[in-house]
Amino acid sequence: xxxxxxxxxxxxxxxxxxxxxxxxxxxxxxxxxxxxxxxxxxxxxxxxxxxxxxxxxxxxxxxxxxxxxxxxxxxxxxxxxxxxxxxxxxxxxxxxxxxxxxxxxxxxxxxxxxxxxxxxxxxxxxxxxxxxxxxxxxxxxxxxxxxxxxxxxxxxxxxxxxxxxxxx
Length: 168
Hints:
- The structure is a single chain.
- With 168 residues, this protein is an alpha/beta fold.
- The protein has a single domain (3-167), classed as Ribonuclease H-like superfamily/Ribonuclease H (Nucleotidyltransferase, domain 5, 2-Layer Sandwich).
- The chain has 5 helices and 5 strands, in the order βββαβαβααα.
- The protein has a 5-stranded mixed sheet.
- Helix 1 (43-61) runs parallel beside helix 2, helix 3 (106-113) packs across helix 5 and helix 4 crosses helix 5.
């Protein structure tokens, strides 16, 4: 039975999202996009806009499964904190919709999609395009979000396959 998976690549400036259908081991692209907030706006307003946009994506695509990329810290503590706040809004938006949420380190996503945890953005985009033929990516953050959705689909299939073998 086909399931809809939503992946998110959170960011305060740009949050990527991608929705796919998973039917057994077949993946199909539904939609992808990027939610942008204006850096000149107050932080609270940007977070509220991010929440509202994510709620609209969730309402439109009605995912059954969702996943979010984890935050990598960097040398700029202020940027890391803002990224963490955007990620918190992403997690909250999914939880508010009643979705269980998978969380994946960027290296796990790269390894699942490209085969190596040290892949660059262009390699991720190329493999997402190969795994989802005909996809028109709206940008690198949307490609990363689709990669998160694909990773979650693979992990979910592995867990379910294992559960069926144990029970059978």
